[in-house]
Amino acid sequence: MAHVNVIALGLFRLDTGLHELSLEANKGKDLYPQLLQKAHETKPDTTVTQADINGCIVLVNGKTARKGTKLADGDTVHLMSPVCGG
Amino acid sequence: MATSYAGYMGKVVELDLTTREVREYPWTDEDRRKYIGGKTMAAKVLDTMLTGREEAFSEENPLIISTGPLTGTGAPCSGRLSISALSPQTGIVASSNCGGTFGYFLKKAGLDALIIRGKCDQHTWIEIDNGRFEFHSADEDGLWGLKATPSQQRIKELLEQKWGAPRSFGQMVIGPAGENLVLYSGIISDERAAGRTGLGAVMGWKNLKGISVTGNHEITVANPEKAAEWNRKFFRALRTHPLTGRQLPRMGTAGLVSPMQMRGMLATRNFSAGRYDQFDKICGETLAEKHNIVNKGCVSCPIRCSRTVDLDGKPVKGPELETLGLLTANIENDDLELVIRLNNELDELGMDTISCAGTIAWAMEANEKGLWDNGLTFGKADELVGIIEDIAYRRGIGEELALGSKRLSKKYGGVDFAIQSKGLELSAYEPRRAVGMGLGYAVSNRGGCHLNGGYLVILEGLGLFTDPQTAHAKADATMMFQDLMEAIAASGQCLFSSYIFFPGILITRPNSALTTTINKAIPYIGGVLRLINKYPLAVQMHMPVLPHTRAFELITGMKMKMGDYMRAGERGYTLERQISTRFGVSAKDDTLPKRLTDVPQDPNDPKTKVPLDKMKRSYYNARGWTQDGRPKVSTLKKLKII
Fold this sequence. Notes:
The structure holds 2 protein chains of 2 kinds.
Chain A: E1 2-9, H1 10-16, E2 20-25, H2 28-42, H3 50-54, E3 57-60, E4 63-64, E5 76-80
Chain B: E1 12-16, E2 21-25, H1 29-35, H2 38-49, E3 63-67, E4 81-86, E5 93-98, H3 102-108, E6 113-117, E7 124-129, E8 132-137, H4 148-163, E9 170-173, H5 176-179, E10 187-189, E11 192-194, H6 199-205, E12 208-214, H7 224-240, H8 242-251, H9 257-263, H10 279-282, H11 284-290, E13 292-296, E14 306-311, E15 314-317, H12 321-326, H13 336-349, H14 353-368, H15 384-393, H16 398-401, H17 405-412, E16 420-421, E17 424-425, H18 435-443, H19 474-491, H20 504-508, H21 513-521, H22 526-534, H23 548-556, H24 562-582, H25 594-597, H26 612-623, H27 633-638
Parallel strand pairs in B: 1-6, 7-12
Antiparallel strand pairs in B: 1-2, 3-4, 3-6, 4-5, 7-8, 9-12, 10-11, 13-14, 14-15, 16-17
Helix pairs in contact in B: 2-19, 2-24, 7-8, 7-23, 13-15, 14-17, 18-19, 19-22, 19-24, 19-26
């Protein structure tokens, strides 16, 4: 298992109260159930679902990734709900 | 000159401030079919009035306030108007779009547009009531010299004293910056701003402090029942779309700071980098968590993207993404509360937050490089409240900062890092990580504007995830988005309503096979986009992803299929360009500073710069312009401009 730093952004952050976490995972998708659990611990009334997490944009070390992307020790994973408009 | 179309009031008025004459401007239904309204209608008027020899500060420069046929009709996001003129900042035709209520009330007064010529002989404000024009002294009424909010409060007091009872009305004013001819001063209406290109200074030069407008004319709709039903669907589509229904209402444009940081496109230290190490202190999430009170919207807007935030215990308008980025990362300031204060003060003084912040960033770098000893330093923002006031009142270094980065860099040096195009400072998107946006900034009719430039960042990492470094298809996509947004603005609708063009599933499932495939495919469909751009009239249908055209038809009674809409947008865009060529604009002006075209953002990745020349050639071909950037005669004929 790789030790990774996960940073929540966008509405995902506002809706879960999660900011920055240290988690263990082999692939991006291994993080999702852990994040959902943490979200409910941090904000019991959160309405965020697994589908919302699946819909987040994933970046690993600043590069676009997918949920199947393999993670390595020390990686930084950003999860961000989609955004647009300026 | 009455009209057979609904939505329009059928009257455009020309007001001569010098003689105080008011006369109807001839504007026919054929003009309405070709130029719709808003900024493209204004472009046609400017086309007849400007020869290429006029200056922005002259009686010959008309200031045109124009609505679209959908303005105030109840269609979604239809609270918009355009203000157009020759810009003192860029010296070419410019238009600035504004929300609020003025457009609605202008139509209630029976007017589609107001063309303001000449110059008042004294400081003046004008009251328009059902087509009646009354001139008032801005000095005797205690208006001249006031900031934006006190100005609007004073006009309200004066009108209520006169009326004896409250009535609804719209108003627009300039602040001290406009009065003192700061080249990037804007016009404020309610809390909204027509901020860009210095049109506040045009008003100031004309000695015109403000305009109020009211009336009780009926705004008609061609097919009220079907329009109402369609608008309900349109509203629903906006409310259920992940961008216009969730993200923008919840976070506003400030929500873009984080993805821009992630993508390396958050302008940092005068566009010398694309990531800011203190971004978490100033991002939209922090703004929402620490300062947001409520979101607000314009007339008939379900998106409600504007923020009301807390400042000193009072609710004030929150900063948009551009202001947030340029007054934080770009000058290395991590004090979010200070940004709220600066944003509020800039609106009160009546200045464009983008150009002001961009000019300050340039000045900081010029100081650092020893080109201009002005005392401004990256990371030292405490003094900026005083500095922006000095700009508005043209005191001390403010006298020079009021000129903008292009003029200052010509005087002191530092042209290569004056982050502007055609004299207009760029907004906060660092284009070396979104090269299509770089092309847009360079070719934009009004100068370095992300929206007038086609807003290709929506494909390049803020929405979809097409390769941001490739030049493939970017020229054709830029043209398509520019024309689409031109038509939306001309109709009187907000550009943000165009985001539903992107199916929600592509946004909510960014990692799906479908979205990934589309992202990869876009660079290879340039040929298809070019065909659509070239023969839009072949698309004689409404597109399900763009409810705007059907709403347009039901409200006005005018045929407006997707192809007609795109062609009208292209016509307006090309006409603006054609006018600007009279003022000497050509390919040489469609540029970016060398920092963005010659210096890779990542020294180890030579692709991280804007391949502008290559994209420009393709763009001119797509538009039917010469390689010198001038619309060909055949193109002007095809578009029925000549």
